[in-house]
Design a protein that fits this description.
This protein is mainly beta and 401 residues long. It has two helices and 31 strands. It folds into three domains: 96 residues, Sandwich (Immunoglobulin-like); 101 residues, Immunoglobulins (Immunoglobulin-like, Sandwich); 129 residues, no CATH class. The strands form eight sheets. Strands 10, 11, 14, 16, 17 and 19 form a six-stranded mixed beta sheet that branches.
Length: 401
């Protein structure tokens, strides 16, 4: 049994004996509180790291290498058997502050340098059955003279090249609670690893010079949201690459609609009633869409009032309750309720006459996209926002009191 466990057990037993010595009359003055031993928090957790050294090009194992783990003046040489290496009893932290420099070198190969974090989550620490964590991480060395190749990326949507798309390469740094990625491959670093960004050309292509990249480093490829022929596009899936590995020189990224609420990705970008508690004394609702539209059948637009005391809408003809208009660029729709009797706001003394929490609700607003072969009608209030949420058709005209 671990010495810490033994000590905990001894303390627990001692406390039990003293506690049992309390008087039978219920007096707990001298009773000692029993410690909670349901979870054991280790303060001396260590990690064992093992792996194999490979040639990054051929995949052959490399023997006779020097593999050293360093933290300050603490130098640890790996135990080795052929191409396999092993480090034991590496200090490990639950506070995210156990960082080491790992270096590997072999004759005929470029030196490998990496920063490794030996950390675990505090929740995990309390659930360990012992005080050791075991990890696997392999090292890949590139031959001397092998240059870092350029990285070429093509961005497309439905087979069409996307021009002027911003492409970012974000270096992957080791996770704080693990020492290897999903493929058990340790990743090298080369000084400060910053993100690099470039724009695609008319063919949807961008090239990153190998001199700005780390040979053997892993990068996440991120294409920022971009517009293409009226569509707002986002990256369809996560893309990553290890520079210098087979097939890594050319990467393809596909894009998809930001919001796919309709076949043409028509969605609402902004609505003036997004915060329903924000009082709009005129009752006007404005809605901005990502694509240009026209209103079809303005006289179909309809409005009703809820909690009306004095306020009243016009009703002399169909569509007279609301005026629906669209901006010159076709992106913003404005709905204005037509009051026959204006709302009465509470002034502190007119509670009997004021409109208390008056709401205006709109319906019957249909739009069709302009400059598009699609002639389908869309109900404005069935469209979604950019986040995929539906918008409200109600506007708060007077505050509740």
């Amino acid at each position: 049994m671990h010495s810490l466990l033994k000590l905990t057990a001894m303390i627990g037993c001692g406390a039990t004996l003293i506690a049992c010595g309390a008087s039978d009359d219920g007096d707990t003055t001298n009773r000692i509180e029993l410690p909670d031993t349901s979870k054991v928090e280790y303060h001396s957790i260590t990690t064992n790291l093992q792996g194999t050294l490979f040639d990054a090009v051929t995949g052959n194992e490399i023997t006779g290498a020097s593999i050293v783990l360093t933290q300050g003046n603490d130098y640890r040489a790996a135990s080795q058997s052929g191409a396999d290496f092993y480090f034991s009893d590496i200090p490990t932290s639950v506070d995210g502050n156990s960082q080491f420099r790992l270096a590997a070198s072999a004759e005929g190969y470029q030196k490998f340098v990496s920063v490794q974090n030996f950390n675990i989550h505090s929740e995990t620490a309390t659930e360990l059955q012992d005080s050791e964590v075991n990890k696997v991480g392999n090292i890949y060395l590139f031959p001397i003279g092998m240059a870092t190749p350029d990285l070429n990326i093509t961005v497309s949507y439905n087979g069409e090249a996307i021009e002027n798309a911003a492409v970012q390469l974000n270096p992957v740094i080791q996770e704080t609670d693990t020492v290897s990625d999903a493929s058990y491959r340790l990743l090298p670093t080369k000084g400060f690893l910053g993100s690099v960004t470039a724009m695609t050309d008319a063919d949807g292509k961008v090239q990153f010079n190998g001199e700005t990249l780390v040979l053997g480093g892993r990068y996440n490829i991120q294409v920022l949201t971009t517009e293409h022929e009226g569509y707002d596009l986002i990256q369809s899936s996560n893309n990553s690459v290890i520079v210098g590995t087979s097939g890594s020189a050319y990467q393809a990224v596909t894009m998809s609609h930001l919001v796919n609420n309709t076949d043409n990705s028509l969605y609402i970008m902004e609505a003036s009633n997004a915060d329903f508690h924000d009082v709009k004394t005129t009752g006007v609702l404005t809605v901005t869409l990502n694509r240009a539209v026209q209103i079809v059948g303005e006289n179909r637009a309809f409005a009703t009032l809820t909690n009306a005391n004095q306020a009243k809408l016009m009703s002399d003809a169909q569509g007279s309750q609301v005026t629906a208009s669209v901006s010159a660029d076709g992106h913003t729709i404005t709905l204005t309720p037509n009051f026959e009797t204006m709302p009465t706001h509470f002034n502190g003394t007119n509670n009997a006459d004021a409109d208390n929490g008056l709401e205006a609700s709109f319906s019957g607003v249909y739009v069709r996209m302009t400059n598009d072969s699609d002639d389908e009608l869309y109900d404005l209030f069935e469209l979604m926002s950019a986040t995929g949420a539906a918008i409200s058709n109600e506007v708060l005209v007077t505050p509740a009191f």
